[in-house]
Structures are given as C-alpha cells and as structure tokens.
Design goal:
InterPro entries: FAD/NAD-bd_sf (IPR036188), Squalene_epoxidase (IPR013698), Squalene_monox (IPR040125). It holds the Pfam family SE. Its main location: endoplasmic reticulum. Catalyzes the stereospecific oxidation of squalene to (S)-2,3-epoxysqualene, and is considered to be a rate-limiting enzyme in steroid biosynthesis. Its EC number is 1.14.14.17. By secondary structure, the chain is of the alpha/beta class. Among the domains are: 230-323, D-Amino Acid Oxidase, subunit A, domain 2 (D-Amino Acid Oxidase, Chain A, domain 2, 2-Layer Sandwich), CATH 3.30.9.10; 392-499, no CATH class. Helix content is 37%, strand content 22%. It is built from 13 helices and 17 strands. It has helices at 33-43, 68-76, 138-143, 154-166, 287-295, 304-313, 351-366, 374-387, 389-406, 411-425, 429-439, 445-467, 472-499; strands at 22-28, 48-52, 65-66, 89-91, 93-98, 101-106, 149-151, 171-175, 177-183, 189-196, 200-211, 230-241, 250-256, 259-266, 271-278, 317-323, 334-336. Strands 1, 2, 8, 9, 10, 11 and 17 form a seven-stranded mixed β-sheet that branches. A seven-stranded mixed β-sheet has the order 6-5-13-14-15-12-16, sandwiched between helices. Strands 3-7-4 form a three-stranded antiparallel β-sheet. Helix 1 runs parallel beside helix 7 and helix 9 (389-406) packs antiparallel against helix 13 (472-499). The longest helix has 28 residues, at 472-499. The radius of gyration is 23 Å and the shape is globular. The two termini are 37 Å apart. Bound molecules: flavin-adenine dinucleotide.
Length: 500
C-alpha cells in the first residue's frame, strides 16, 4: 500500500499515531460503524486509535437511505448532526408499485414507538437534534408526528461522521492498511499490525480491538474460519439526475410478476439512486441491453427520461448482495461489528440501522467498563450477542423474506408477492406493522413472524378468490404449497438469526 500512496498528500496528523502506548481500543475501519464506536468510546473516556486505509471521501452506492431506526441510534449516540449540511433528502415513507398499481406507506407515528434513549456522556448540548439547513428542517425532523428517514450521498455522510470523530480529543486517527490482527501466545487478540504510508509495518496494542472493516471484511474470520457470507443476487446501480420521481420524499419499490425488484430513492437535490436487482451473483453480460429490455419497460413513465440518459452515459456500478448471520464473539480482546459481523439483503435498507443500533447497545454494555479487565469485557460481549438479536433479527429476516417474495421466481412466491401487495392495500395495521419493522422501530421478532404468516394466509385467500368456485380444489392444493413456501423463505432465517 505504502508504495502506491503519495505520502505527502496525506495530512500529517493521520500518520503520527504512536505505537508505544497501549490504547483502550483500536477500531479497524472508519466507514459507517467505525467512527460511531470510536466517538462513543472516546466520550466515555477511552483512549481510542481508529485506523482507516483511505480517509478521502469514498464514492460508493451503498448505505444511502437511512431508516428511522438508524436515525434514532444516531440520536442516542449524539451524532445525528452527521445528516446535516450534505443536501440530505428527508424520507417520509415508501411507495410500492406492483404491476403498475401503487400503494403509499407512510412511516409510523412517533407516539407508537419507544422514546429515543440518550446515552449518558454521549448526548450533550443538543447533539441529539438535527440543526436547520437547506434540506433538513428542524420542524420536520423534531416536531413531526411521524418518524423520518433520510437519503444522502454516502460519501458526504461518511465525511460528516469522520469530522465528528476527528473532534474527539481521546481519538487518534491513523491512515494505514490493517494487515493482521495480533494474537498473544494465549491466542487472545492484543492489537493490530498496520502498514502505514512512509512508515512501514508497525504493531499497535490495545485492550480491545474492534473489527469493522465492512462488506469485504478480511478479518471477520478472526471470529471463526466458517464466518463467510453467501451471495445470491446483485444490484446494478446508476445515478439518475434531475429525475421526476413519482412520490417525492418516498423510497420507491417497483415490483411485478415479470421482473426483478427495482429501488428508487433521492439522495440529493439533483441525484436519485436506482438499484436494479439481478437474481444472480454474476451480472448480465450486456448490462445496457438488460437494463433496456428487462428493467425499463416496468418503470414509472416519469422516470424514463433520466433513466434513458443514465443508460446512455453507461456509468453502471454493481454490488453483491450478501447474507451473513452474526456469530458470537468468544475471543478475548476482539469485537467484530457492522457488515464484518452480520449482513442482510440491502433491499430494505437496514444495514446502517443494524450497525448503528449495535454500536449504541455496545456502548451501553461495555462503555463504562475498564477495558484492561478483559475477562469482564468478554463476559459482557457474550451477553451483548444475545441482546442485539431482538433488534437485528427483525431487520435481517424481513430483508431476506421480502427479497424472496419481491424477486418471486416461482408461482407460489408470485402468489405471496401479490398477496403481500393486496395486504398493504388494506391499510391500517396491514401497513403500520410492516412499515414499523422495515423502519427499524419495532424490534419484535415474534410479532414479525405473526405478520409474515398473516400475509401468507391472506395470499392464500386472494388465490382462492382468483381461482373462483370451480378452481377451489386446485386453490386448496396450492394453499399447502404456498404455506410451505412461506415457511421456507422465513423460518430458516429466523432460526439462524435467533438461535445462532
Ligand atoms: C448495494 C448495497 C446497498 C446498500 N444500501 C443501504 C441502504 O440504503 N441503507 C442502509 O442502511 N444500508 C445499506 N447497505 C448496507 C450498508 O452499506 C452497510 O451495512 C454499512 O455500510 C456497514 O458499515 P460498516 O462500517 O460495517 O462497513 P463500511 O461502511 O463498508 O466501512 C468499512 C471501512 O473499513 C475500511 N477498511 C476495510 N478494510 C480495512 C483495512 N484492512 N484497514 C483499514 N481500513 C479498512 C474501509 O475502507 C471502510 O471505510 C447497502 C449495502 C449494499 C451492498
């Protein structure tokens, strides 16, 4: 790494960390999760080293729509102002399109969700409230009756998080590539080996090392060699400029019997992200013609001019959609968190909400401990693994189950997909509960199970209606197959999330 980097271009303070001292914590990676852990621990009085291989603003198509649950965690951490002054777009709910029909799903009322917890030492001087800027208005975020999410350019949000962590006097930032997690003779983690531009390889020691090196994590295997994600599908993403989106301030989910799901959401005043699902880890050979023949015909008309322009410009980017259930951390001195620990389908935009809620819970769990008491810290981390499940399992299982329904590649799944849309059309609790799960404000896995199977039963009912009296014997047979399919796309994942 040091060979390819222009050392002179790197600010001096990013290269001067001392390897002589033992830090309370080393944080590997300054993506979404890293700066939040480092800030939280620093505010609890811990001496933190955060190592990032590239501090310049990243340009990625991930983590651009934050669900209300993620914003609530940022409030708990006293970091909500990371969404300010980046031309962020408030999100008030979702619009789901199914074969051209549309249903609007607003986010739930604040009164129906638990109050946001302010973590002591982290929240002060109003840092749990947004400030007024060109696109984020205090009255909308603070005084509105309903929860809000937000869309933003990922790199700009990250830059704000990094600016917040930079202001913490207890944090030392270091530019470098972590190349090894250091172990003692007893096989406990004791720090990290970092390759630093202009300095070479150096060992840094800490009582606790947090691995948050993201989706392509090199160090998640420190938990266990079989902690490996599976990839079943991908997203092809493009930027639409000045798009005429059908429902302002809504995330759009475009579904249909003949195509894969498409997501559309605004990320700045000018830019809208479109993510088109492809049901394989290997992308289509000719992306341009796939977008033109298999995606374009199903998009709302108002999007077509900006879509055509984006296809013509040909700036496609793709990302694998990985799934990885979390694993309990049993290694003294180590804590793996964020995408390195746990991943779900990005369809429901829940990754940042999971990561940030994990950070908030983690700070509450270990933030006041003395990290040199490594056994006590490990005991607390063992407990934390089970406590996080309540929140994270809902978002994770929902993402996988909804993707199976929305990408429906067999008739049973298509019946469930249609039933799900019809269920939303009924309104009331048929919208309130699903959107509360999606928003990350209703951490109740057993209620999710009940709602999911209610959708399945409703789908069977809709199928009976459509088959008519003459078709009812067939509909009865299909009912068993539909229920079995529903169980197959839901229960194994619930089991993995809750038991594993
Ligand atoms: C296609 C796609 C779309 C998504 N959309 C959304 C969305 O809309 N909403 C949402 O909530 N979530 C979304 N997600 C998920 C979300 O992006 C992740 O959950 C989130 O970014 C995880 O944060 P993290 O800090 O764990 O990892 P990252 O944000 O990936 O950060 C990892 C950091 O570690 C650094 N790093 C890696 N290796 C090293 C090393 N060896 N040494 C030093 N530094 C290192 C990297 O440079 C990076 O800065 C999406 C994911 C995908 C794949």
């Amino acid at each position: 790494m040091s060979d390819s980097v222009d050392v002179k271009a790197i600010p001096k303070e990013l290269l001067s960390a001392s390897s002589e001292i033992v830090y309370d914590a080393i944080v590997v990676g300054c993506g979404v999760v890293g700066p939040c852990i480092a800030t939280g621990l620093a505010r609890k009085g811990k001496k933190v080293l955060i190592v990032e291989r590239d501090w310049t603003m990243p340009d990625r198509i991930v983590g651009e729509l934050m669900q209300p649950g993620g914003l609530r965690a940022l409030r708990s951490l006293g970091m909500i102002q990371a969404i300010n002054n980046i031309d962020a777009i408030p999100v008030t709910g979702y619009s789901v399109f199914y074969n051209g029909e549309k249903v609007s799903i607003p986010y739930p009322y604040k009164a129906d969700t638990a109050p946001v917890e302010k973590i002591s030492d982290l929240v002060f001087d109003g840092n749990d409230r947004v400030i007024e800027d060109k696109t984020v208005h205090v009255k909308d975020f603070e005084d509105d009756d309903r929860e809000r999410g937000v869309g933003f350019v990922h790199g700009k949000f990250l830059q704000n998080l990094r600016d917040i962590v930079a202001k913490e006097p207890n944090v030392t930032r270091l530019q470098g590539n972590v190349i090894e997690i250091l172990r003692s003779k007893e096989n406990e983690v004791v720090g990290a080996k970092v390759e630093i531009p202009g300095r070479g390889k150096e060992d840094f020691k800490a009582h606790l090392t947090f691995v948050c090196d993201g989706i392509f994590s090199r160090f998640r295997k420190e938990l266990s060699p079989d902690h490996i994600p599976s990839v079943g599908s991908s997203f092809v993403g493009m930027s639409l400029f000045h798009a005429n989106i059908p429902s302002k301030n809504h995330g759009h989910v475009i579904l249909g019997t003949s195509h894969m799901p498409v997501l559309v959401y605004q990320i700045s005043s000018e830019e809208t992200r479109i993510l088109c699902a492809y049901n394989s880890a290997r992308l289509p050979k000719d992306i341009k013609s796939w977008l033109t023949t298999d995606v374009k015909p199903y998009l709302p008309k108002s999007l077509l001019p900006s879509f055509d322009k984006a296809v013509e410009d040909g700036k496609f980017r793709s990302m694998p959609n990985s799934y990885l259930p979390a694993k309990q951390n049993t290694v003294t001195g180590l804590c793996v968190i964020g995408d390195a620990l746990n991943m779900r389908h990005p369809l429901t935009g829940g990754g940042m909400a999971v990561g940030l809620n994990d950070v908030a819970l983690l700070i509450k769990t270990v933030g006041d401990l003395d990290f040199s008491d490594r056994e006590t810290v490990l005991d607390e981390l063992l407990e934390y693994h089970f406590e996080r499940k309540q929140y994270d399992s809902v978002i994770n299982v929902l993402s996988i189950a909804l993707y199976s329904l929305f990408a429906a590649d067999n008739r049973n799944l298509q019946v469930l997909q249609r039933g799900c849309f019809k269920y939303f059309e009924r309104g009331g609790d048929c919208i309130r509960l699903p959107v509360s799960f999606l928003a990350g404000v209703l951490p109740k896995p057993f209620l999710l199970t009940k709602v999911f199977f209610s959708v399945a039963l409703y789908s069977i009912y809709v199928n009976f209606q459509e088959r008519g009296i003459l078709g009812s014997p067939l509909a009865l047979l299909e009912a068993f197959a539909i229920l079995f399919t529903a169980a197959k796309v839901f229960t194994p994942y619930l089991f993995k999330e809750l038991i594993g």
